[in-house]
Fold these 2 entries.
Entry 1:
Amino acid sequence: MGYIGSHTAVELIESGYEVVIIDNLSNSKEEVLDGIERITGRRPHFEKLDLVDQERTLEVFERHNDAIGVIHFAALKAVGESVENPGLYFKNNILGLVHVLEGMESSRIPNLIFSSSCTVYGEPDTLPVTETSEIKKASSPYGATKQIGEELLQSEVKAKGDKLNVISLRYFNPVGAHSSSLIGELPLGIPNNLMPFVTQTALGILKELSVYGSDYNTPDGTAVRDYIHVVDLAKAHVSAMQRLENKNQEEGYEVYNIGTGKGISVLELILAFEKVTGETVRYNMVDRREGDVEAVYANADLAKTKLGWSAERDLETMCKSAYEWEKRYRE
Ligand code: UD1
């Protein structure tokens, strides 16, 4: 029940699904269940489990063998940390995925949605990236785990035929929070990602934001990303689950870009945030951050055609909701 998982649980429940949440609570809190319950009026069933534990994973999956499908969010995602400790990343992200697949097989659950990432494209040659753009060598062990995860799933689907159907969603940069401000992003310690750094700087929790790189070959020199509202991203999972459940897939393994299609620079995001919240974000231009790409944004047409999904919330809504959540959480 991390950031994306909790928002997806809300959208699934509101679309009529019953939700079971599995989490080892390494980067989340059980209170998130209260937020989900207050929003939806339903409390998801919760299982505390570390997916690295094979035996218990099989046990928990067996207990829920009537499930329509699994959405596998559970992974470590700090790029810098993955460079320092690659073994930890491969163990959690790859071994965890292998155990999910074993659990699904032994309890005969056929449908899986996998959290992939735009990181699989590395530094793209042409923009926007489509699902057929080249997969470049990953710039971090974290990125490698997403690439390997996708490859593993593709091979498994080939091997298992119609016993396994998979949709990989390549997330661009999720930001923002639920409009209720009852759930949102809860980074441990000093945030790595831009938006939580911005909200905490605006509220005076952090002194100043470092903008990593002002000499990129982009309109204002700062790096460009495709920021997507987490509620839009959550809704993409509902569309993907419906496609799996209704057996509408054209291939056993499908992959979709989940972004808005708009490239936004770091400075543009800061300015939009300041405008919509009335706060000032103190920032300083510093050197580029190692491993960062210059620009990446999605062509998300395939998701629109095949999943009937497209992003609806704009940058202002992303900034405003992130800010409201941070403010409410700090109170
Ligand atoms: C990266 C990964 C993404 C992964 C995510 C998880 C790539 C290309 N993307 O996203 O797949 O899911 O981490 O954490 O590897 N920035 C600042 N100052 C800050 C923080 C960030 O200027 O304090 C800039 C970054 O340089 C970047 C942009 O803001 O240009 C977004 O950074 P961030 O939110 O960390 O996400 P990515 O690095 O794009």
Entry 2:
Amino acid sequence: MCGIVGYVGSRDAAPILIKGLKRLEYRGYDSAGIALISEGLDVYKKKGKVSELEAILEKEVNLNSHIGIGHTRWATHGEPNDSNAHPHYSASGNLAIIHNGIIENYSALKKDLINKGHVFLSDTDSEVLIHFIEDIWLHEKCSLEEAVRLALTKVVGAYAIVIISKEHSNQLIAARKGSPLVIGIGQGEFFIASDASPIIEYTNEVVYLNDYEIALIKDNELTIRTVEDISSTPYIQTLELSLESIEKGGYEHFMLKEIFEQPNSIKDSMRGRINLESGEVILGGLRQYMNKLVNAKRIIFIGCGTSWHAGLVAEYIFEDLTRIPVEVEYASEFRYRNPIISEEDVVIAISQSGETADTLAAIELAKSKGAIILGVCNVVGSSIARATHGGAYLHAGPEIGVASTKAFTSQVTVLIMMALAIARKKGTISESKFMEILVDLNNIPAKVSRILSSNAKIELLAKDFKDSKNFLYLGRGYNFPVALEGALKLKEISYIHAEGYPAAEMKHGPIALIDAEMPVVVIAIQDNSYEKVVSNIQEVKARKGKVIAIITEGDTEIPKMADYVLEIPNASAILKPLLTVIPLQLLSYHIAVMRGCNVDQPRNLAKSVTVE
Ligand code: G6P
């Protein structure tokens, strides 16, 4: 959370910073600010979105500068207001900092600094950090980069920081621990950002900073030292990201674009990994760990939010196909409950961003107990991808809408391929079933396209429910986690209270909520619990609830009892979550748009949650 960006070179810095912040706004949008060095060191900041900052900058006449830093905030310490917005000045006003993360020992540091006479203008931990750095700098009479290093040896917590100094108009200092930072290397210019999206149109040569590294960009040169003062050689990588993939491409919102990208993103997740002729699933990043997986006593999936839901789908699939016992845990719970993990367990961390703080901490814990950790991440080179022993990328392309859509379907696709590969090697799946699922998986993108063609119908349906106060989502088996995901999507972007339940649990509580005002979305596809779900629909109807049923194409029974039906094509049972989730994504999207909500940047949320 929080997006940070920096520039030094010969171009005009302000427009680069603003454009970069807009690309990073998915990481937080409580306030935005930039600092530029021209005659002095000037900070401009404002509560609200980057567009509000832009509006105040339009009134400024002198923004000429070739060096600057920018920040878009997701508030942790201190409410979202102008003074808590970044950048923050040091005590003398000669330094400015942008920070993503949390300094956990900030209050002890602040107390010491206040005793020394420091006055703070904000409630943030970040302002404390820059005061602390300057205090060391003045006291030790060392270089600024050395002062940063010394300060960081005393800091507890997570950070990605960039610092500029009035006295050094060609220098940026950046450091990271636990929050991502990428440095773009251009011709006589450097870019720094939380991810590569602000950098890609200028250069595709990048260096990913590692934890505990401090980068000094000075006089057109990049040097890296660690917090322990060991020099490290920058490893330059070439980005494969394209500019089009991070733009809206004619869609009104990123979320809609990403929903519609799913036939392709699912295809991309499978590309080169399934071979129908030889009947093979090839996941290169797992090859080395295949025996470990096949012989695992237990598989534990960890993740947060939508990624946790993908883990729940995987639980059903893995246990069914591989006969390996599976547990699915919220990373945030796992990390604090002294879990029993052995070297015979395999932990699979699922994360779109690859940066979620709780998931990263859970990985470190499992690693310390000797388990093999595999990652299922979307962002290449992300912290989780690097912290795990091996894994499989989603290759779904950048997901920018805060509510996850295409990452979910790609996560499920990758997890299905993993389960198939393990089951085959383990001999827990028959050859005919393996081939049947593989062929069917290959046909999923076309089936998703078919569902997407009912977008207009779903939009019409959304009109009838845009003013609902509550929603219930029901599903069973493989589709129970989809009910959770449908409810989460609606909550996240439309602010309507929604709950997902296993359909059979309805009678143990939620049924008490049902009246004529309660829409109930029921995933009622033809599978082995079809009859039971039909009974649930009747129970809802008997209490005058409004039923929106997701049904299998050609079903003639449910349309007779449900108020609304949305059809999905038939598929193998384990693949159906890839289909049933699509109408739920579209329904949430349209309801949110009709309620005037900002679907790409819902209130209080951020896409990449790099704090606990
Ligand atoms: C945030 C996002 C969710 C996401 C969750 C986990 O809450 O808003 O969309 O599912 O984090 O993120 P990850 O990147 O680890 O999948």
